Task: inverse folding
């Protein structure tokens, strides 16, 4: 078997940090994605333009560059703002926060399209019917649109989460001690790069498999009201 | 406020980096595409050994982060003396070729899946019709299935090129001076972090834009027999 020379728990803590970044980015990304989809489908030209610019720019940039821009850029902007108020200390943004924001922005841009597609897949007649019954617009959204939105968007969001899980490795570049960086430490000590990078790869694969299982169960649950075709 | 003269001065070096990025991506895509055809066929074959080894390859390279794959090849392989003493070491000790190998194996796995889906999307009746005309399996593949599969695969392959373009930024993590790597070198010299990261971002966006546009045109041309007649 692979001998981890006592670095097993380091890798485990790294994997926990990886999941924490992924979870944080997921929450931010879902919020941004939902807002982006609402903006893209709204009547306001300004909202549509902002959402369109956001998705086009983020989807065209390498994730690594987004991580670097958020990490270095937010520090210098916040430092400049605090200097404006007469405080000349250097403001540092933690690698964790930068990672969550950068990956959340990426997830949000891609999930905007997923949510937009899901919104359009819900028949307009349902919303009209709910309005005719006297429901408030917010209630229509909460009671009619949202529950169905999840069902339709789930497969797309699941794929995006798998991508997000792998992208967390990029946050190691700005110094967050997640799985990849812990692996690097272990390699530095043991001089066995293949053993440890391969172990890291296996851990990512394991996380992928677990995620796929969870998603499969979630999709099954979300579709429980629907007959499976040819089942 | 923004120091345009410095940006202007270093712009040629940034564009040099962009040229390296394009070179890496083009080579990796070419090797990956050549690799993807036999892998896709192996994945569809009835031979369990071929089928499962293709599946294992695809699962590993799609389920782990590209960063791990690069490190596994660049740092990992040096762990084995047998590798260091073989002729292959001449290639494997160069960061440039390690990046190409990692990118090619990665995009090869994704392209194989795209191709498999496209091959399966070709209607069965066409293969049966070709068989009844007396065409051999090889002729059927080359003359009937493959040309149509390519057409079906084009939109998805366009997305894969964009993903490869963005993923190539990781070459900078193993000392290569691609667009991201060169940008970091320039930043180390000028201390203008945010400015040059934004410049690099604009160059990436421009490249992604050209690829997207080009694929829209290619898609139109390949599918021109399906276009509605304009009246």
Result:
């Amino acid at each position: 078997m692979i001998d981890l020379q006592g670095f097993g728990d380091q890798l485990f803590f790294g994997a926990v940090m990886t999941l924490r970044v992924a979870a944080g980015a997921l929450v931010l990304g879902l919020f941004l994605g939902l807002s982006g989809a609402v903006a893209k489908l709204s009547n306001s030209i300004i909202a549509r333009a902002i959402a369109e610019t956001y998705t086009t720019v983020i989807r065209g940039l390498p994730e690594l560059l987004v991580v670097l821009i958020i990490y270095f850029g937010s520090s210098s902007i916040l430092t400049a703002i605090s200097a404006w108020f007469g405080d000349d200390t250097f403001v540092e943004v933690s690698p964790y926060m930068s990672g969550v924001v950068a990956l959340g922005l990426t997830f949000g841009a891609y999930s905007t399209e997923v949510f937009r597609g899901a919104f359009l897949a819900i028949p307009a007649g349902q919303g009209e019917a709910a309005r005719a019954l006297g429901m408030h617009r917010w209630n229509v959204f909460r009671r009619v649109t949202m529950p169905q939105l999840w069902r339709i968007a789930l497969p797309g969001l699941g794929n995006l989460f798998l991508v997000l899980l792998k992208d967390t490795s990029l946050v190691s570049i700005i110094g967050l001690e997640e799985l990849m960086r812990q692996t690097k430490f272990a390699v530095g000590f043991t001089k066995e790069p293949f053993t440890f990078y391969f172990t890291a790869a296996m851990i990512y694969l394991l996380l992928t498999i677990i995620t796929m299982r969870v998603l499969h169960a979630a999709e099954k649950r979300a579709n429980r009201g629907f007959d499976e075709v040819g089942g | 406020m923004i120091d345009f003269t410095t940006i202007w001065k270093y712009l040629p070096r940034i564009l040099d980096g962009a040229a390296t990025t394009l070179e890496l991506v083009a080579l990796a895509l070419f090797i990956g595409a050549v690799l993807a055809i036999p892998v896709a066929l192996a994945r569809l074959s009835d031979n369990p050994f071929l089928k499962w080894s293709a599946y294992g390859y695809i699962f590993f390279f799609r389920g782990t982060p590209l960063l791990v794959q690069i490190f596994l090849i660049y740092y990992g392989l040096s762990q084995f003396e047998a590798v260091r003493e073989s002729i292959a070491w001449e290639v494997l000790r160069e960061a440039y070729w390690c990046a190409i190998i990692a990118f090619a194996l990665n995009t090869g796995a994704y392209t194989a899946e795209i191709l498999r889906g496209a091959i399966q999307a070709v209607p069965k009746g066409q293969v049966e019709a070709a068989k009844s005309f007396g065409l051999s399996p090889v002729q059927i593949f080359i003359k009937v299935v493959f040309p149509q599969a390519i057409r079906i695969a084009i939109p998805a392959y366009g997305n894969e090129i964009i993903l490869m373009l963005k993923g190539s930024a990781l070459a900078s993590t193993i000392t290569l001076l691609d667009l991201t790597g060169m940008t970091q070198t320039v930043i180390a010299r000028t201390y203008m972090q945010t400015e040059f990261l934004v410049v690099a971002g604009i160059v990436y966006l421009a490249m992604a834009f050209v690829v997207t546009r080009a694929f829209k045109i290619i898609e139109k041309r390949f599918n021109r027999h399906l276009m509605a007649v304009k009246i």
User: Anything to note?
Assistant: Chain B touches chain A through 37 residues (CB under 8 Å). The two ends of chain B are 55 Å apart (CA to CA). Chain B has one domain: 4-226. Residues 4-226 of chain B form a domain with the MetI-like fold fold (CATH 1.10.3720.10).
